[in-house]
Amino acid sequence: MLPPSRSSRPRRLAAVLATVAGLLATTAGAATAAPAPKSCSFVCVPDTVVLDGLHLAGNKIGLMAGNPTLRTSLANLLKQADDALTKGPWTVVDKERVPPSGDKHDYLSLAPYYWPSQPKTPENPQGCPYVDRDGQVNPEMKNVPDKAERLVAFNSIYQLSLAWYYTGKAEYAQRAALDLRTWFLDAATKMNPNLNFAQGIPCKTDGRGIGIIEFSYTFTQVLDAARILEAGAPGWTKADGKAFRGWSADFLTWLRTSKNGTDEAKATNNHGTFYDLLTAATASYVGQRDLARTIVRDSGKARIDHQIAADGGQPEESTRTRTYHYHTFNLVALTRLAQLGKHLGVDLWAYRNPQGGSIFAAVDHLLPAATGAAPWPLPDIHFIQYAALDSVHAAADAGDRKARAAVGRIPAPPGGDLFPVRPAAEQLDDVSTT
Question: Which residues contact 11 (CB under 8 A, 6 or more apart)?
Fold first, then answer.
């Protein structure tokens, strides 16, 4: 069983302020802690969903004290946020292809690993039937831009909201708010709250439950972004927040009642884990905390029991052509679920299955390959060493000593290590094909 978290918000705040006092004393020679913040013009604690708002507040004070790790990480984040200021906004109605519903407001994407098996002819213009080539991306999927634009839009919203939180610069918040309203709220451009036509296969199906994974962690980043903006950001109004909670509640209903949603809930591999993350995070955001708590608590038996072996290996992900990618990918869902659980009084980090498998064990299993101490023992057609970094960071923060010792020996991704300033796991290699 999962032991309930014994921490309370006041005790956690006291702990953060105590940590900040030590940080200030170390980096700036301060003898006492800074006074508790009174407004977001100094430091506020956003009521985030996956991210730890108290951690963000501690970071902000650490930045004021000149912490070099935080400053480097923030500089890398701001490069991406500055780039996001010049792009977008994005909308699902931009696409040329019309979904089977006839409504361009419906999200549309194609299955990435399915290819035509026959020559394209006037009688068979699509080359049907399509067949699966696991791990090999069909470039035809790029002809439908919703998936690629969603990834850029959601990442931009997340980066811009964090950039505003740390710098206070209004242009970051205003642009994040514009991007949010364009994708989700404005009548002319908003996406309908469903994924009926995600990852369709030509000549076979208009959409599949598998397609839900395209939203399953990037949307949870958007939920955190909205909560950060709700902490007083310019350009994001109470009416905006209410409207986005309404959209999210409608999306949650679709996730839990549609055929695609119920199909995805039954998945036993990373798809099932990410479905739990998406539904639990959305439930928490819209105020259905009891439902969110139940989903996270039950994911111990529903996911960890089946997915993680005694040695930390993940049998469901070991049959793929990109085994390292999918091991790290499933861990992103598990570590984010554990971080979400912390806010809900559920300690998923402490869960051990009957074989002894746990999230910590799964992270530790990756460490030899992630640090370069040993080759990855399974086939992978595109091994990327740094892909595990964020999950290792998350495990280290949760108390995994092996992970803590390994963090500094894992290469940073090309854009730098952002975890210090956005401390929740992301998939650091290419997820646009997943």
Answer: none
Q: What is the DSSP string of 347-408?
A: -GGG---TTS--HHHHHHHHHHHHHTSS--SS-BTT--GGGGHHHHHHHHHTT-HHHHHHGG
Q: Rounded distance, CA 276 to CA 295, Å? A: 6
Query: How would you label 38-59 residue by residue, b for 16+ Cβ within 10 Å and e otherwise?
Result: eebeebbbbebbbbbbbbbbbb
Does 250 have pLDDT greater than 80? yes
How many other CB atoms are there within 10 angstroms of residue 204's CB atom? Answer: 12
What is d(CA 9, CA 7) in angstroms, rounded to the nearest whole number? 7
What φ, ψ does residue 68 adopt, rounded to 5°?
A: -70, -35
Q: What is the pLDDT of residues 205-235, one digit of tens each?
A: 889 999 999 999 999 999 999 999 999 999 9
Structure tokens belonging to residue 345: 């009084």
Give the strand pairing for 197-200 and 130-132. Answer: unpaired
pLDDT score of 172? 98
Amino acid letter, residue 257: T
Number of continuous H segments (helices) and E segments (strands) in the chain: 15, 4
N residues, the chain:
434
pTM for the predicted model, two decimal places: 0.89
Q: Using one digit for the tens of pLDDT, what is the confidence trace for 332-342?
A: 999 999 999 99
